[in-house]
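Retro notes
What went well: the complex prediction finally ran end to end.
Inputs used:
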Amino acid sequence: MNDVVVLGAGLAGLGCARRLGTARVFEAGAHPGGHSYSHGIDGVFFDEGAHICHSRDQEWLDMIRKAAGEVIQIPQSRVSNFWHGHWVTYPVQNHLNELPNDARTNALTDFVSAQIEHKGKEPRNYLEWCRYQYGDYLTDNFYAEYTAKYWRVPMEELATDWLAGRLLPSQVQRIVAGAIAPQDETQSVFACFHYPAQGGFYRFFESLYADIDITCGVRAVEVDPDGKMVRFDNGDKAGFTRLASSIPLPDLIDMCTDVPDEVRDARALLRYIKLLCVNLTVARKELVPHHWFYIYDNDIDVSRVSVPSNLAPGSVPEGVTAMQAEIFRGMDEEWDVEALTSKAVTDLGRILKFDPDRDLVHVEPVVVPHAYVISDLNRATAVECIHSWLRSKGIFPMGLFGHWKFIWSDASFRSGEETAEEILKS
Ligand SMILES: Cc1cc2nc3c(=O)[nH]c(=O)nc-3n(C[C@H](O)[C@H](O)[C@H](O)COP(=O)(O)OP(=O)(O)OC[C@H]3O[C@@H](n4cnc5c(N)ncnc54)[C@H](O)[C@@H]3O)c2cc1C
């Protein structure tokens, strides 16, 4: 269908264009890939925030493994938490024996109390969910602390619709066993995963873009839903009968003409966080054993650190550890990228015991303007209102920021395919 315009050449745009066969794809960035893109510096590839493939979608896995060439299968992820000077295996509730005695006792006592006190209760928000699942001690000392750094909103403002596939509900037997003795299991969702042997996460997808008609470096700036026209920042225009859009929903609404008031009001409710990736290479071999780790302490800005040299050891020069530290801020928060970058290097040097002046080979800040959608209590209703208006105009939102809810890479690609099916039937 030549009259379909696709906005955004991330994985949703890829899935949509491949399924349609013919479609014109327009991408603001200099290259396709969106959030799945990886870029190389001195032979080390960094992703846009920690990316691994833990998909259970066999057909998808077969496709991307073939496209990537050599792929590493990691049967058991190594994930840890750094908490006030202690390293505790992830997820903390299943490894309480690794906490100091008083913390372990408090955590276990509060966990048991929660099982009795909140049994059968339906949580109204993320704070209640954590208190009911894990008890007050773990909620206040781990989950609330991490939420403040990562989501940048109070826990009670968050819904629970984003948890499936990300956090484990409490498993009494595992928690008790983990309080008594060391356990080797980790979070089941990420326990086993795949990663390309070379080229970073994007290597899974790069060759799949070969036959797609993509114009890169053009940003959509205006959409006329009734006149069925998109205008780009270079002055070009593209007419459409159907528009498939993977660009962030608030941006799409802002560029549409004649938007009804209730849709504008719904758009004003959408919130997200932005991300600063601090990519670094350090001239120290195997500085850290983990694939990634979380930092809970609120005097350290970094929330999560992934370690590309452990994900794909053969892709990194000998004797070097490559890491990516992630720092999140709310969409409207001011930030000083240079100061945050420099503090991240100092903090990681202290935690991992390297000397930045002597050992640092390369450091590079990369800003990701849209990282995660905030799944607050307004999100679902607001998105429904916006989607229903867009669809009535022949505009189909898709992917991570079209659906405006967190979905993994496989689901973003599939959402593009599903959008194509819907367009073909419409
Ligand atoms: C920090 C982070 C970590 C993640 N980790 C994982 C992981 O470990 N495993 C996993 O499977 N998934 C992970 N994901 C999810 C995965 O990255 C996404 O599901 C997927 O890449 C989203 O694809 P998309 O096409 O929907 O959106 P995007 O990748 O955002 O693509 C949208 C495209 O639209 C373009 N665009 C925006 N505005 C305009 C405009 N006005 N005009 C034209 N083009 C425009 C953008 O440049 C972009 O290329 C992670 C996501 C994030 C943010």
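What we learned: The pocket of flavin-adenine dinucleotide is lined by residues 7-13, 26-29, 34-36, 49-53, 219-220, 246-247, 251, 275, 371-372, 399-401, 407-409, 412 (CB under 6 Å).
What to try next: split runs per interface for comparison.
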